[in-house]
Amino acid sequence: MGTQTVTPQAVQHPYTRYLRTDRLPHIWCPGCGIGIAMGAFLAAVDELGIPQEKVAVVSGIGCTGRVAGYVKFDSYHTTHGRPIPFATGLKIARPEMTVVVFSGDGDLVSIGGNHLIHAARRNIDLTVICVNNFNYGMTGGQMGPTTPHRARTTTTPYGNLEFPFNLPYLVAAAGAVYVARWTVLHVFHLRESIKEALQRRGFSFIEVVSPCPVGFGRPNKIGEGLEEMRFYREHALIQNGLHPKDAALSFRDRIVVGKFVDEARPSFLQVLEDHFRNASRDPSHREG
Amino acid sequence: MAANTFSGNGSFPFWREPLDAQQIPHLSTSITIFPDLCKGCGYCVEFCPAQVLATSDRLNAKGYHPPEVVKPEACTGCQFCMRVCPEYAIIVEKKLEVPT
Ligand code: SF4
Ligand code: SF4
Ligand code: SF4
Fold this sequence. Notes:
heterodimer; A: alpha/beta; eight-stranded mixed β-sheet; 34% helix; 17% strand; B: mainly beta; Alpha-Beta Plaits
């Protein structure tokens, strides 16, 4: 039962084969939760046994946008707010690929907010993993559309006067067929949820609440990431099946997590397949 | 890069060793820590359900205090530390030891 020094080859982390290890260590701050969320995604892909060459990851700009650069799949680091349009085109052109959008709240909900709701409306076969750190971390901790009411950021020094989006409600209302929220402390639930989402046809969305000790923790005097994680432990409430309208997050109050929506509706690709099948049978659909 | 591996036999603090301990399958775990990958967030230490890990006094190359294994025999093999580490600095392997 002693200590022995081993070479890294002797034991390998289960995530290693899915990472561009030459780019590690990643840039995320100590205590940042994005690494945990990325790990949960890699574990989900691993456990489902999806071939590595059949997965594509698309990210936008921001701290979470760096994910595309670290994972060893086909990956795209797109322009700000645009991972969903890139992913939509990719999925329609290569429907056999599992296409995942991995990006942050600022990128997906603010700059790319319109793409998000229209992708949900179309029910396009994508899984969107949205890491929500409640602010624009990379650019210096500015307030965004997910910043809780009254929370301080560098641009709301007296507290945020606006009200944030309730993301599960937004995407569910727009038409998503699978909607869940977890914190990074719920790493096992998160992994299982990502596995479910990857197996659904249609638009699936998972919000991942994550500590950002630098952008959100410091101005709100929360302290280090560890304090934020302790807060999750004490204030998270698992409520599977809750109507997403009741899943709003407020500032320093309970955090409702769980799977809120899981239903079946024809996905965009299913409709497209049906259309082409019928069109090829029915001569009136042919041109000329 | 150096790594430290600790093994536990997954035993419970019985007042005596069960008589059939050599015949029943039991879980054996091994925890490997890569101290130089650690950024000192403390999640592994705080959230291990069996208090297997503790923050060490030594500093790693980046200037953080990596965790060390203080109670390897208490490890349940739940792998929470491995999954919650944002730096992928911990590997927990477990296997069922079936006596031959
Ligand atoms: S600024 Fe916040 S979200 Fe960005 S890497 Fe640092 S802790 Fe993570
Ligand atoms: S595997 Fe579980 S019990 Fe063992 S050290 Fe890690 S967190 Fe603790
Ligand atoms: S969770 Fe990882 S980075 Fe954090 S203290 Fe433990 S080993 Fe270090």
